[in-house]
């Protein structure tokens, strides 16, 4: 069976909900509203290998070396064949997240390409779900 993980903040929660609603795709979801990278780092991760992982981290963080360090540690804690990072709307944070993605040879989808009302969440998570499945 194909195992997938969605790890992160409220953008991960919204993405997981859209994937189930539109495509009946169910992943392990370890995500919470307003979660920061430091909080996510402290969470216990499942000890299994995933076929794909969606990492939605950084929307609630300020840019800086500590965030980059936490993102790197989180990525090393996940065993996955394919990782896809959702780059936050904040361009400074998106740049840090993208640097970690590139360092691991991971993929990324920039949330900045999706309409938003609050510069944190996409207006329509279905658009994000479709982009993930292309």
From TrEMBL:
<protein>
    <recommendedName>
        <fullName>SGNH/GDSL hydrolase family protein</fullName>
    </recommendedName>
</protein>
<keyword id="KW-0614">Plasmid</keyword>
């Amino acid at each position: 069976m194909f195992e997938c993980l969605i790890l992160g903040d409220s953008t991960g929660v919204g993405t997981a909900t859209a994937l189930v609603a539109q495509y009946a795709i169910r992943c392990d979801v370890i995500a919470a509203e307003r979660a920061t990278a430091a909080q996510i780092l402290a969470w216990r991760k499942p000890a299994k290998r995933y076929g794909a992982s969606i990492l939605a981290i950084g929307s609630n963080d300020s840019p800086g070396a500590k965030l980059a360090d936490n993102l790197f540690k989180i990525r090393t804690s996940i065993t996955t064949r394919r990782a896809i990072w959702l780059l936050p709307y904040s361009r400074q944070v998106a740049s840090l997240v993208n640097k970690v993605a590139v360092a691991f040879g991971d993929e990324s989808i920039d949330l900045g390409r999706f309409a938003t009302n609050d510069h944190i969440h996409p207006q329509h998570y279905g658009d994000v779900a479709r982009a993930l499945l292309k």
